[in-house]
Amino acid sequence: MTTSKKKSVLGDNIVSGGLNALFGQQGIEIDAKQSDTIKELAVEKIIANPFQPRHHFNEGALRELANSIQENGILQPIIVRLAHDQKDQYEILAGERRWRATQLAGNQTIPAVIREYDDATMMQAAVLENLQRENLSPIEEALAYKQMMDTLHLTQVQVAKRLGKARSVVANTVRLLTLPEPVQAWIQNGELSMGQGRTLLGLHNKRQILNVAKRVMQENMTVRQVERLVNEMNEAQSSPKQAPEISTEVKAVEMALATKLSTKIAITHNQRGAGKIEINYGSDQDLNRIMTVLGLDLDA
Questions:
Q1: Alpha-carbon distance 188 to 210, whole Å?
Q2: What is the distance between the alpha carbons of residues 293 and 290, in angstroms, rounded to a whole number?
Q3: What architecture (CATH level 2) is domain 3-132?
Q4: Full-prediction pTM beyond 0.90?
Q5: Where are the strands (E) in 103-204, listed by range?
Q6: Gyration radius of the chain's alpha carbons
Q7: Which residue in the list 91, 96, 129, 140 is annotated as catalytic?
Q8: How many angstroms separate the CA atoms of 61 and 15, rounded?
Q9: Is residue 96 annotated as a catalytic residue, yes or no?
């Protein structure tokens, strides 16, 4: 089957003007032009982008794309570069889903345009394509931003500018990586939303995040409900603990003991009638004095 001659109706190959404009601003040609030379490359000679931020590809969606490729072929070629350290191998700049689906379809070759790009451009293009064409999971997006910052030595502001994002979006997304790993995994697989995860970060006691996240999933809480829960827990933690009220009778006992022992006495008393008596003393001699008043003789 000669895939490049068949008409494509694949949504994966339709590029919006907004995306082209964004890539153009970054100096990246992410799609083939009429003037490009298109080659049929063996799929076995192509490897995934080493900077691909997407860790999970939906198998069902890939199968649908493979079926469409079998029926209609591929009109929009993928974009690749020669692998730096592997002879006769190519790394994908854009179009990894098409390449994966082509393998599922059983095709031996795929139309491609070969370009020369450095690692920084490969990384930036991979993030841009995934963010614009098929949303990454929040955790994958956060990891992609962090990888750009760490590898390219960029600030959050610089990453936001390169990707056409607000700085707050980049900052709030990267913060998800400070959540406990199990919570990140729940966001990754969709059991928790990004909004719920961000709200959990507001807990003052970070050790509570894991248990609260479990409760959020068990009770199927909305983001608004999580916000209320987090606020309540923070208020409870910040409010000073007050000693429980004691009755007049207990206060009288407290005063009588303080007078008899000539020291400070504190009595706690619960609703069940149980409690404890605290007797303060200032020194070993003071302790011996109190024991004498109480009629206690350890030497007896």
A1: 15
A2: 5
A3: Alpha-Beta Complex (3.90)
A4: no
A5: 109-114
A6: 33
A7: 96
A8: 18
A9: yes
